[in-house]
Amino acid sequence: MRGAGKVKLAWFVPAAAAVLLAAESDLTPSDKIKQGHSRHGENFDTGPRAKPWKMEGIGHTHFPITTSNPEVQQWFDQGNTLLHSFWDYEAERAFRWCLKLEPDNAMAWWGLARAAGDERGKEFAREAVKRKSKVSARERLYIEALEAQVAPDRLRDRDADYKERNAAYKRILESICVKYPDDMEARSLLALANMGDARYGAESIIREILVKKPDHPGAHHYRIHNWNYHEPEQALGSCKRYGEIAPDAGHALHMPGHVYGTVGMWHEAAISMDSATRAEKSYMRERMIFPFNAWNYGHNRNYLNYILEQLGRAEDAVFGARQMIDAPLDPSFNSEKGYSTHSQGMVSLLRTLVKFERWKDLVDSKTFPWRDQLSDKANRHYAETRGYLGLGQIDKADEVNRKFEDLGKEFEKTKTFDGVYKIMKLELRARLLLARGDTLQGLTMLGEAAEKQFEHQKRDNDPPFYPELLYVSLGRAYLEHKSPALAAKAFEKALEVCRSDWFSLSGLVEAYHALGDKGKAEDAMARLLHVTSGADHGLRWMEQARATGVTAKPRDGSPRAQRDYAAMKLDRYGPAVWEPYEAPKLEVTDPTGKRVTLDEHRGKNVILVFYLGKECLHCLKQLRDINGKKDEWERLDTVVLAVSSNQPADNAKVLETIKAPVARILSDKDFENSRRFRSFDDFEEMEIHSTILIDKKGRVHWARSGGEPFGDMGFLVKQLERMNKAAD
Predict the structure, then answer these.
(1) Total structural domains in the chain?
(2) Fewer CB in a 10 Å sphere around the end CB: N or C, the chain?
(3) Which of 573, 595, 615 is the last residue of a domain?
(4) Residues 37/46, Cβ–Cβ less than 8 Å
(5) CATH number of the domain to which 715 belongs
(6) DSSP 8-class letter at 684
(7) Are 472 and 449 in contact (CB under 8 A)?
(8) DSSP annotation of 580
């Protein structure tokens, strides 16, 4: 696989490595392949590089294609089924294997285009178009539909309307439906293309599919999306069935939770989201994948935390947020910026602490790992202002709030977070006015903030980014100032955007009790007791509702009966907590021929590098950079193991030229270890680059594999520091 004797064995001696790196621009395409890049081009450097496995618990669909190999049809069906649950990464793995078996299969390229999406998808679609003459008339229509959707007409303006291309896509799908009345896959794609925009049309198509294929995962999935924001009750039947059809697909368990949350079925929502996070963690554990590689994990865990808040389970919500914050970081997929798992964990923790009035935690500098970015600065000042107000330290709150308001000029330069910032600004001003006794102006301003926050939250049924439902705060303020009628209106308004919200229901018990409306007070108490049946003890608003003396039997006010979340046993879906996975066996050979394993390094952190040997210039640079951090690795109690397929005798010659190398240079016979550590491309049968962090107990915390070696030494240092801190 690699040519012998092309370069001298200079390794990471700085001067020699610099010479080698200078020659990198002269590399031929075949040289780059030898350095871990796909021989099929850059589009294959991204995505899965290990072979698929037969997946159970994902549902089943059959999409007949032109092939002479029954195994190709099997993997195509698996990929197509996975696409119906938006599990694109695993779908791509299945379609890649189809291409390994039949490189010229047009429909395998079609599936790969759909799974990859983005710019890679366009390139894969072009490959499908090149081969469409080799398939049936029905399959050609599928390829032409995709071509119409992803490939804009080059004769038109560059900003060709996506809606126009999507309309052309749907027209071809409609033709397939008419010409091939038994083809349920075309109907499912047409329902997907129409969902949310033409709800009745999409629902009609879905009903047609379910008459013939009652367990079609796509039909149930798309029905949930179709009604998610409008009359979600229409999708409750599919919410129940979808998770039963595909219990091992995290998204199939997750999506029903959206609908359950929207209609206020918080127990069912918790069962849904908890099952989904467990299924995702089971998948990660079995396939040696990390939270930052699972596309929906952060959103799913954040949603579960929000639902736990709605059930009055603050401790569980805080624990979940901590899980997100403490999950392994990654410079590309879980950085400290953007919509990452880490960032969602920060938002989730802020939301829980504010809702449950954890004032001391909000002002404690150790609670949040605040970052030097604008949204964090705003959230920090907001949290501390709320915390000091809750603790009665008004002057301190005012001081921090001035810092919050000073950020306004920075927000004027960007639209990011701008809407939330303006609502926060109005809310904090209102709370400071109320704290200083300016009741009329404070209530007026809090009402304005509540209205804006209501409009902001009702646009989406994802976990709210705003820390609190301000109509609840307004209702509490009215109760405090002896205006129960206005309080009741505020709490009822809050229930419009968040059904069965226990914070609102507890306020209604107090408000209607004060108004002497026994019936409404008992109704609110009955619903409150059902929602909070498994809540933490001693919650302030629950205690105040009980203090009214209003009694009732728990009653579920939801559109359908629910199971009790606290009574559910969900272990069958997977573990409740993500933990680093046990490292596979490492059995390599040092330059003297001695066997080396991970066990002998227990008690030390390990940076395990799989590199491509003596001709890989990128590898030389990586190893040189690692060598330059020798003091850091010693400080962090870390050893470096560098593994390649080079023979021990070759490595012995290398060591003769190196003074005090940081890495132990080790040999991997027949790629046995690189395969175990997923540092091998099964599609092209070639080794690839990997950098892996293993803790002192022999557990893998982080890994990166691909066509390029990992070069961010600063990230490795920070991640090792986090690993050591977690172990203390």
Answers:
(1) 3
(2) C
(3) 573
(4) no
(5) 3.40.30.10
(6) T
(7) no
(8) P
Containing 634, the helix (H) or strand (E) segment is: helix 630-635
Residue type, 580: P
Same domain, 526 and 645: no
* Count of all residues that appear for the chain in the document: 728
Q: Are 87 and 132 in contact (CB under 8 A)?
A: no
Instruction: Determine, yes or no, domain membership for 356.
Output: yes
Q: Which domain holds residue 174?
A: 70-262
566 and 606 assigned to the same domain: no
Closest CA to 138 of 86, 87, 98, 178: 178
Q: Tell me, yes or no, whether 336 and 485 share the same domain.
A: yes
Q: In what order do the strands lie in the sheet with 638-644?
A: 581-582, 699-706, 689-694, 605-610, 638-644, 663-667, 587-589, 595-597
- Of 175, 117, 116, the residue nearest 142 (C-alpha): 175
Residue holding tokens 């109320």? 434
411 within 8 A of 421, measured Cβ to Cβ: yes
What letters, b where the CB count within 10 A reaches 16 and e where it falls short, cover 564-574? ebeeeebeebb
pLDDT tens for 202-230 read 999 999 999 999 999 999 999 999 999 89
Longest CA span, the chain: 93
Q: Are residues 554 and 648 in the same domain?
A: no
What's the rounded Cα separation, in Å, for the pair 482 and 696? Answer: 60
Q: Are 139 and 123 in contact (CB under 8 A)?
A: no
Same domain, 233 and 288: no
Last residue of a domain, one of 528, 550, 573: 573
pTM of the model as a whole = 0.92
Q: Are residues 412 and 468 in the same domain?
A: yes
Q: Helix or strand or coil: residue 331?
A: coil
- Could you write out the three-class secondary structure of 187-232? HHHHHHHHCCCCHHHHHHHHHHHHHHCCCCHHHHHHHHHHHCCCCH
- Give the span between the Cα atoms of 524 and 532, in whole angstroms: 12
